[in-house]
Amino acid sequence: MQRTEGEIRLLLEEIVAKGLRDQYQLDIVSNYAIWKARISCLLDEHDLKSYVDNVVAKPTDANLLKKYKAVMAKAKRLILDGVRDHVVCHIVGKWMAKETWDALDTLYQGSSEQ
User: Which of 26, 70, 102, 104 gives 20 to 30 Å between its CA and that of 55?
Assistant: First the structure.
């Protein structure tokens, strides 16, 4: 069944509001590649992909710093909402979205290559 652009947009808005549905959450190594593709699209949709692909320098200007923190928190929340509870222990305490992303990539990508 092909979804319309409107249906896709509504689904993405629901995901942002409520987090990923349980069946799409990162759980085990076998669903990492699919999870990563879904989360990458979601981050890209919200112009947040650069925060997981690169180290984005923390600005010194107060106004820019406030925006930076809000965007970083949103990127991390989308990632956290996309993983099951038992996965959170591997990423809790990471301040930057890239650190969170890299920790999952190391854990799951490394495991899937074995």
Answer: 26
